[in-house]
Amino acid sequence: MNELHKLVEEALPELDMMIGWAESSDPLRTTPVFINDVESISRLIWSPFCAQNLTGYLVKPPAPQPADKDKKIGICVKGCDSRSLVALIQEKFVARERLHIFGIACRGTVDWRRIMLQVPRSNVKSARVEDNFLLLEDTDGTHKLKLEDVLARKCLRCRYPNPVICDTMIGEPAVLRISPEDAYRDVEAVDQKSLEERLAFWQSDLDRCMRCYACRNACPLCVCQDQCIAETREPRWLTQRTGIREKFLFHMIHAMHLAGRCTECGECERVCPMEIPVTLIKEKLNKIISDKLGYTAGLDPNAVPPMLTFDPGETGV
User: How crowded is the C-beta side of 172, counted as CA atoms within 13 Å?
Assistant: First the structure.
């Protein structure tokens, strides 16, 4: 924590604003914080509870605009967040030269819903991580949980625990938890089902969708804003009916719009109130694009996503 505070304080004179995480009233969650003075730097934290991808705040209304055009916006990113940032730079939604990126080596973030399976959340008074364990204090005493058992699904298959782009690195580099070949094991598990079983799997999950659009709103790369197919009336792609066909259509169009762009940050899945594994759909498309075109989103700021260009020499399709 001291390293984070020190490095941000050193960079603050060149920053118009700093975006990071701060403690919240819930010990199992953090909250975004926007800082522009030295006194507030002490609010910045980094822990396995810092799950939210902050890069969406750079592009979603009201996106911050530096009051001083000579200053930059500082932002904290984990490995998966940094890939989202690269994708936004690729598509010119943010300018690289206007950012000061604080990269943080990440060993995984916790999923409070997995914690709730073992400890009632309403009783938790405090939480901290020691070594490879999560220690929770509640009215019944101390609970010691294996960190591996409460990590988010995206973290269990993460290939980029260290930022792929940054100006200032914080912490020692993290090691891979899995081999790259296992990154799509969840997708492969679904693929092994028969066509009928896959249809039943997605019908069961997507039928629970409330069409709240939290997945769209949290996605840093869903930038259509007022032109979203879920709300536009000209042309009219979707109705407000709540049948399974409408739900399927929304999620499939959403996924297709992110094909070759999704960085698998898991925000859509994290915010889903119905706990639908919607990232799986994007992971499937990413696997196809990786296999056919050899492209992985969010790694090279100078690359062009394959669905945004045309190459007559492509051999994978």
Answer: 2
